[in-house]
Write a structure and sequence with these properties.
The structure is a homodimer.
Chain A: H1 3-19, E1 23-25, E2 37-39, H2 41-60, E3 65-67, E4 73-74, H3 76-81, H4 84-87, E5 89-94, E6 101-103, E7 127-130, E8 133-136, E9 146-149, H5 154-158, H6 161-168, E10 174-183, E11 198-208, H7 213-231, E12 238-242, E13 254-262, E14 265-276, H8 278-287, E15 293-297, E16 300-304, E17 307-314, H9 315-326, E18 327-330, E19 337-340, E20 351-355, H10 361-378, E21 381-383, H11 389-398, E22 403-407, H12 409-415, E23 417-422, E24 428-432, H13 436-443
Parallel strand pairs in A: 3-10, 20-21, 20-22
Antiparallel strand pairs in A: 1-2, 4-9, 5-6, 5-7, 8-9, 10-11, 11-17, 12-13, 13-14, 14-17, 15-16, 18-19, 22-23, 23-24
Helix pairs in contact in A: 2-9
């Protein structure tokens, strides 16, 4: 595809997402709010499915993972200790003529050579713009009341390291996981839900013995890849990029970015970083608390500061990458259609149930029976009796429903079987109602 | 219990919650941050269980409910339209002597009669203190960049009403549900996770024909009660309080507060309010968008503004009320114990699996086998081989694990059965390993 077609796909996804109830611009009836989006009913179901899959793999099926949910608002000393107050910033320039502001490193030609892309005016000095959103807590407004909306979920984990170790007494290696919101005052939010001011992260801090980090790093790289494939991300569009010396954070001796080929370019999707003992040591020295791991072996009590492997996942970017991975068009003219080839695990609705005709009470009654039967078992089942059957298939295709079950006259008059129509190739087969639960249990296994 | 004992119970719950990994003070290693708490591993599992139960009952098992997840940051016009910018405030007084600030309506003796409870100084004027947390978005700091951390999740629903109706074409009556964070700059946060500055709400706005609201109100009252009982809240401690004329919001002709007997008094847990067309009408006139419902019947196209029934649930208050409902002490001396009589649906761990002795490899191997078998099916299963079996029971009692499965010598030498020990009455029974899945499936049904 050329650039126009790329832009086209993105536009089609944004428009489908709004029209079909996946993703709406935030505060839209009031003209929106830059950098915020709201998830509609189908988008929220996708979000829940992604989070459930993540929790199952990385938390619930494991014995070494502890989930926490820390407050978004944290004591400002947290962000002083981490360096965010001083250094979490992007380079900002203002046009002297039109007063518009830009992120200097994202301009086609950065200053001092570059001119304002809006009015060709000259830029002022580049200055550092802190991306943390600030607020004031309490009834007395002074510097002690300053708080920040956390710019990352990671610190909610490190700050709770001691409490988790003391209360759960985990054996090392172990991880602490968290899903939650983070906020960044992006100078130029852009690309739909890619660069947001309010975003959701799924993060793990995995604590290991310092001698073991390389082995664990490789292990987590594999685990991340396995999960990406399992939810239906297009693995041909994913690239693991080793961040070279000099471009990594100073405390990290290895970092991988997992980049994804979005329609607007190959950009970061997830990250995997070896952070050493940087965070625990900074927090220990700033807070005065001992943030260590102790254990008893033949040689007596051993104490060390664990090192950290950090796999981090953006939830909103996952949703966008899933939509990009799943978006398909096929057919011509009257046969043309758009469909989302979403994995059944992720699709908002797993099954759609319809009576062939809406105005035949016996079809509707039997359809309702089949619907209730399937919904009791699989929950994410939807009823659709609107319009003719071809239109219903198109409608379900567009929101990625993998299976459409239709109750027709053969169901009533012949062998109590229903038609099952498959989203991706449009093929149909007949399955007895009595066999439906097992049929779908296998499909969803 | 007298007041001292009440305080005692609260203190015991707070201390257990921290010691065993349910709930930690926010930013604790930095001296905390008033009005914030962090959920530790067991508290986070409870939260997830409560939310899953709520979603199953109110969203997934229904056909008329649409979930959304709106951004916390909204266009400031939202809060101008609702009146929050002008009126969402608490009465604040400052002591002229010690400069401490208090919520006037929570003082033992309110001003002008009352003196400062800290220093007996005189109070200044009572003034209205807005409880919304403010922040600034974007790189240009002027009044247009002001935003607020939403003080309630409800408006994220109303603002998306049109998008949900247009994309999902729901039949009335229908509801829109949301779980998410809200923020209130409480002058005096207090009572553990009862009055927080950062809290989580589970809310439904249920849209009905104006003529039908009374019937739906009764229906939702019953639904709420049914759910409360299903998660194990002590229904003897719950009171539905009709808010009388003159005390309700001006737009509401009926409101019920569900109050709970916390150790610190009978206070609000949930609410059920009939809000009429107040919200949709305000947003329609402020935004210029038509927020209506249209349908076709014999008489042609009918258009009306739906009326709203709002069931609202605080998640943190639910967790606290569940802990209060479940907290038990029994036995004397060496036999004394503390246990949490949590419903298996809500308990962090459903089953604990142990080998009777840690140093017998054949017991450990068989135990691991049973553990893997149960964990594959029920996920929330924990392994515990630490200390003697009596200590393990006490440890699991304290975190509310309903069943302890023990692999012992009879398992190996006799009939392949394990011991199952019940949390609440300490009784034990033997069940064959081959029957375990069915045994627990019935217990958890």
């Amino acid at each position: 595809m050329n650039n126009n077609e790329h832009g086209d796909v993105m536009q089609k996804i944004v428009s489908l997402a709004k029209r079909r109830g996946f993703i709406f611009p935030g505060s839209e009836i009031y003209g929106g709010l830059a950098g915020t989006y709201d998830y509609g009913p189908l988008g929220e179901m996708m979000r829940q499915n992604v989070m459930a899959s993540w929790r199952d793999k990385f938390i619930k099926s494991r014995r070494d993972m502890y989930a926490v949910s820390a407050a978004i608002l944290m004591n400002q000393k947290v962000w002083q200790a981490t360096g965010h107050v001083d250094h979490f910033s992007d380079p900002l320039v203002e046009c002297k003529k039109c007063k518009k502001r830009f992120r200097a490193d994202q301009l086609p030609v950065p200053p001092p050579e570059g001119k304002c892309p809006e009015c060709k005016g000259e830029f002022g000095e580049v200055r550092q713009f802190n991306m943390m959103l600030e607020t004031k807590l309490g009834a007395v407004l002074d510097s002690s009341s300053t708080s920040y909306l956390r710019p990352e979920t990671a610190q909610g984990i490190f700050v709770n390291f001691k409490n988790v170790v003391d209360s759960m007494q985990p054996k090392i290696p172990f991880g602490i996981a968290q899903i939650g919101k983070a906020f960044r005052n992006e100078i130029t939010p852009r690309d739909f839900i890619f660069r947001l001011r309010e975003l959701e992260q799924m993060e793990i801090e995995y604590f290991v013995h310092p001698d073991d980090w390389e082995r664990h790093f490789e292990y987590w790289k594999d685990e991340m890849m396995e999960w990406m494939a399992s939810i239906g991300l297009d693995m041909n569009k994913i690239h693991d990029v080793e961040i070279p010396d000099g471009e990594r954070a100073h405390y990290s001796s290895r970092t991988i970015d997992f980049e994804f080929e979005y329609p607007f370019g190959q950009k970061e999707l997830y990250g995997l970083a070896y952070r050493g003992d940087y965070d625990l040591s900074r927090h220990a020295s700033s807070s005065g608390e001992k943030l260590e791991y102790r254990f008893q072996d033949e040689g007596g009590v051993q104490t060390f500061v664990p090192h950290v492997i950090e796999p981090t996942f953006g939830l909103d970017r996952t949703i966008l990458a899933l939509l990009v991975s799943a978006y398909r068009e096929d057919g011509e003219g009257d046969d043309s259609r758009v469909y989302l080839a979403l994995d059944p695990k992720i699709a908002p609705h797993k099954i759609c149930v319809s009576p062939l005709l809406k105005n035949k009470p016996e079809l509707v009654a039997k359809g309702e029976e089949v619907f209730a039967h399937l919904k009791a078992e699989f929950l994410d089942v939807v009823w659709d009796d609107n319009g003719n059957i071809g239109k219903r298939y198109r409608r379900q295709d567009e929101i990625g429903t993998p299976f459409c079950v239709v109750v027709d006259f053969d169901t009533l008059e012949k062998d109590d079987s229903v038609s099952i129509r498959h989203r991706d190739d449009g093929s149909q087969e007949r399955v007895k109602i009595a066999d439906l639960l097992e049929y779908f249990a296998q499909k969803f296994a």
